[in-house]
């Protein structure tokens, strides 16, 4: 200490003490979680699971190629026969989902005719299939 330095050392640097407390807390946390062990138990067996109450309705796939040919679930069809087939499907399963897959070169009007037909028949779950963007 120099002769002209009258600086007081009243402040205590607590940073090393806080670091020590944090390290001790970390060690305490690790040791207490490592010390907790489970008890071996024999779990009871359950009966057979109940069969599902309702089977999900089968997806109806309508495909339209670039020549304008329609297919319902892989079978060739026309717009008129598609309407009767969808009516029968709607009568059997009212909430049957329908997906329309149109080729990218397909006339937009034909896709809209199929979607409009589904709407007129009251099909609630109608979707358009697309490829995900990369």
* CATH-level-2 architecture of the domain at 60-128: 2-Layer Sandwich
**Fraction of residues in β-strands:** 5-15%
Distance between termini? Answer: 71 Å
Count of DSSP helices?
3
Q: Strand order within the widest sheet?
A: 3-2-1-4-5
What is the C-alpha radius of gyration, as a whole number of Å? Answer: 36 Å
The number of distinct β-strands equals 5
Shape category: elongated
Give the ordered list of helices and strands.
HEEEHEHE
Question: Helices and strands in order, then pairings?
Answer:
Elements (H helix, E strand, L loop, with lengths): L14 H21 L24 E5 L5 E3 L2 E3 L1 H14 L5 E5 L5 H13 L5 E3 L6
Parallel strand pairs: 1-4, 4-5
Antiparallel strand pairs: 1-2, 2-3
Question: What do these coordinates show?
Answer:
A 5-stranded mixed sheet has the order 3-2-1-4-5. It is α/β, with parallel strands linked by helices and 134 residues long. The protein contains 3 helices and 5 strands; from the N terminus they run H-E-E-E-H-E-H-E. The mean pLDDT is 81. The longest helix has 21 residues, at 15-35. 7% of the residues are buried. It has a domain at 60-128: 2-Layer Sandwich (Nucleotidyltransferase, domain 5), CATH 3.30.420. Helix content is 36%, strand content 14%. The protein is elongated and about 100 Å long.
């Amino acid at each position: 200490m120099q002769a002209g330095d009258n600086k007081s050392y009243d402040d205590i640097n607590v940073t090393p003490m806080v670091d020590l407390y944090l390290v001790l807390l970390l060690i305490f946390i690790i040791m207490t979680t490592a010390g907790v062990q489970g008890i071996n138990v024999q779990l009871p067996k359950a009966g057979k699971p109940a069969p599902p109450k309702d089977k999900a309705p089968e997806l109806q796939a309508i495909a339209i190629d670039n020549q304008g040919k329609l297919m319902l679930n892989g079978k060739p069809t026309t717009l008129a026969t598609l309407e009767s087939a969808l009516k029968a499907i709607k009568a059997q399963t009212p909430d049957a989902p329908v997906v329309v897959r149109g080729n990218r070169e397909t006339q937009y009007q034909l896709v809209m005719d199929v979607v409009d037909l589904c709407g007129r028949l009251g099909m609630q779950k109608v979707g358009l299939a697309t490829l995900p963007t990369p």
